[in-house]
Design brief:
Chain lengths: 108, 119
Amino acid sequence: SSELTQDPAVSVALGQTVRITCQGDSLRNYYANWYRQKPGQAPILVIYDRTSRPAGIPDRFSGSSSGDTASLTITGAQAEDESVYYCNSRNSRGNHVVFGGGTELTVL
Amino acid sequence: EVQLVESGGKVVQPGGSLRLSCTASGFGFSDSAMTWVRQAPGKGLEWVSSISGSGVRTFYADSVKGRFTISRDNSKNTLYLQMNSLRVDDTAVYFCAKDLRLLECFDSWGQGTLVTVSS
């Protein structure tokens, strides 16, 4: 079992806003990061340090955090945003890395 | 441009050994912590092991500790994962990734190499 919990699947209408959440005790002390992965491809970092966006990631992607829950928000979802999204952080003791189980996003 | 290219994946019998390599280019390899992450078929991402830029500090998931060894050769810009006592549940695509910070987030990934453990 993962120390970070994500909903297995979420859907959003084209052009609407969707929030994907990640819950875990370690998020009270360590930054959450978010990755997107399409089938057969490597993951890509989309948000790091809770709220920062790497170069080349569209500004419709944003991150936030409150208590033990981190969120990835896509404002104006596009068809190409269909992916599995993973969060990660350190574990509660800070000596390991943990990933959430992933959320499959469907854009309707 | 950062490039990470994994190699060494193949079919191996249970109990066997394998060494994966990851050749890096486009960034200061010796200044960067590196990580192996794996993904079993149809499953999510699982952290395997990380190593500091100097190679002095190493970290392992409980599922591989004592069986896998991470190392690096900074003169060759290459990361390694020595995998011993392989089990069927080690079957996965193994990705190498560059750490933005050790044990935190991974800002570049290779395309992965498939390890299949089967008799």
